[in-house]
Structure formats: structure tokens, C-alpha cells
């Protein structure tokens, strides 16, 4: 298993992973279709942002992406694994790699908008809910989470 920088040509598989992973939480095909613009990873997105693939047996099974929201803040924009890989520690592998990768950057905090079902996952890494965003589904809110980074 390796983690490697994504290539813009990976955009279709990353979009597929994103949509399948989101659907894992019980959202209908119609809802996934409604969110398509938010769940699509374009070539331009990969070229513009930091995107890293988790590869197992020559197959991309997950990825994460991030960008600098400001000089001192990084936004973890995506972290997805294929549904048959959920619950097997691959999300932790991705998160650990992300945290190591940004360790030496001059950043004070990481922010993210969490899938409501993934809030517990992020809290295991020290992220705390600091707000929420209302979504297109009635009474569904996406937690806004942050992780303050300690500088040694």
C-alpha cells in the first residue's frame, strides 16, 4: 500500500470513489445526483490543489485533498475511501499521512466540513466541531470542524 500524488487523469476514479463513499451513508441515487457538482473531482481541481491517492495492489482505493484557505489555515477538502474499504483503517492511514505532510508547514489550524456520519472519525484525531452548515436536505447539517496545531 502506498500514498502518491494524484495525476489529473485520476479525476474520474476519484469522482467515483467520492460518490460511492458518500452513497455508503444511505443517501439515495437521486440525492447523489443532486450533489454531483460538489462530488465531482476535475482535472483542474487536481492540478490546483494537493491531492494524494491511497493505492493498494495497483488500485486507487481512497484519497484526500487539501489547500491553503489562508496563510495560517489549511482546509482538508476531501477524505474518501471506497465503501468496501471503510472500517478497515484506510481512513486512518490517509489522515495520518495528511497530518505528517502538513506538519512542517507554518499553519495554525486545519478546518473541514464533515459528512455528519464521519464526525466521530475526525474527532478521534482531535478535530472539534465549531459550527455547522445547513444542507439541501431538511434538518441535515454538516459539522464545521477544526484542529489546532501545536508548534514545537
What does this structure look like?
The structure is a single chain. The protein is α+β, with helices and mostly antiparallel strands and 152 residues long. It has a single domain (2-148), classed as Gcn5-related N-acetyltransferase (GNAT) (Aminopeptidase). Helix content is 31%, strand content 34%. It has 6 helices and 7 strands. It has helices spanning 11-23, 29-34, 36-39, 43-48, 90-102, 119-123, and strands at 2-5, 50-56, 59-70, 73-81, 109-113, 128-134, 141-148. A 7-stranded mixed β-sheet has the order 1-2-3-4-5-7-6. The termini are far apart.
Write a brief structural summary:
The chain is an alpha+beta fold and 152 residues long. It has one domain: Gcn5-related N-acetyltransferase (GNAT) (Aminopeptidase, 3-Layer(aba) Sandwich), CATH 3.40.630.30.
CATH class: Alpha Beta
Counted beta strands: 7
Oligomer: single chain
Beta-strand residue fraction: 25-35%
Structural class, from helix and strand content? alpha+beta
The amount of helix comes to 25-40%
Low-confidence stretches: none
Helix-strand sequence: EHHHHEEEHEHEE
Radius of gyration: 15 Å
Fill in the CATH topology: Aminopeptidase
Biggest pleated-sheet summary: 7 strands, mixed
Instruction: Quickly count the helices.
Output: 6
Give average pLDDT, whole number. Answer: 93
CATH superfamily: Gcn5-related N-acetyltransferase (GNAT)
Give, in spatial order, the strands making up the sheet with the most strands.
1-2-3-4-5-7-6
Number of domains: 1
Backbone shape? globular
N- to C-terminal separation? 30 Å
CATH architecture: 3-Layer(aba) Sandwich
